[in-house]
Write a structure and sequence with these properties.
Layout (H helix, E strand, L loop, with lengths): L2 H31 L13 H20 L2 H7 L8 H22 L9 E2 L2 H30 L2 H9 L7 E2 L11 H9 L5 E2 L1 H16 L1 H12 L1 H9 L16 E2 L3
Helix pairs in contact: 1-4, 1-6, 2-4, 4-6, 5-7, 7-8
């Protein structure tokens, strides 16, 4: 593979990755903010609930599988062999974004609205909803935006070097909870200004994943980093944030 072709492929993957990532995030904010009433799916009752549950399950199951050893090998199928290993983080984000986009864009709304905030209360809930997204954005920055957005994969290929993974974050919101991204994402599901049975199903399912999902990730950290991760885990709670920040600690290498 020539340098020119490698760089062209890297830029192509990067454009696709960030475009899909941005579109999926926008779709998620809009559809969830509507209480899941704006999905484009039109599956009739009662099969809409079957398809909606399937859409919900594919996100956490696919996300967890692709982070496993076997799943990470599968990520290398989606790029030329010479750059497949380094492009894997970008491929992962592309697939994850497609999963998120599918969940929210293809949702088939029930048409039932239990409650909708009105007047001043509507703006209060919108502010809360956007604040939780702000927390999610800050958590993503603290975790390393280059990794979370897939930038580190395609940029490494473009520059002709091996992909570099950031240290495991222990600063910012990671001094309050070991999983601020999961905590923030769970909060987004409960601060919407419109409540429907659809939204309740999404909130319960995704919050359950946010609580249980990091178990596999932390098992890998314990296996790889041993005492260094244990020292961090002793000071910072798994999920429910502590009230005061933990002492600053040195980072631990992450490997997605």
């Amino acid at each position: 593979m020539t340098d020119l072709s490698r760089r062209f492929i890297a830029i192509a993957y990067g454009l696709v990755c960030h475009a899909i990532f941005g579109l999926a995030a926008l779709t998620m904010v809009i559809v969830m903010g509507s209480g899941m009433t704006l999905g484009f799916g039109r599956v009739p009752e009662p099969w809409n609930w079957v398809t909606n549950v399937a859409l919900l399950l594919q996100l956490p199951l696919g996300h967890s599988f692709l982070l496993s050893d076997r799943g990470r090998r599968i990520l290398t199928w989606f790029a030329p062999r010479a750059i497949a290993s380094d492009m894997a983080p970008t491929v992962y984000v592309i697939i994850a974004a497609l999963q998120v986009g599918a969940l929210f864009a293809l949702w088939s709304p029930s048409g039932i609205v239990w409650w909708q905030a009105e007047g001043t209360l509507f703006y209060v809930f919108v502010a809360l909803f956007l604040s939780t997204w702000g927390l999610l954005g800050l958590s993503t920055l603290n975790a390393g935006l280059e990794l979370q957005s897939g930038f580190n994969g395609w940029s490494a290929v473009f520059l002709g070097r091996r992909v570099r993974y950031p240290d495991m974050p222990t600063t910012g919101l990671f001094r309050f909870t070991r999983n601020p991204i999961y905590v923030s994402f769970a909060l987004t599901t409960w601060t919407v200004p419109v409540w429907t049975p659809d939204q309740l199903l999404v909130a319960v399912a995704l919050t359950s994943y946010c609580v249980l999902g990091p178990i596999l990730k932390e098992a890998r950290y314990r296996r790889i980093h041993g005492a260094r991760f244990e020292a961090y885990a002793q000071d910072v709670p798994y999920f429910v944030p502590r009230l005061t920040p933990a002492p600053r600690a040195d980072g631990v290498r992450s490997d997605v």
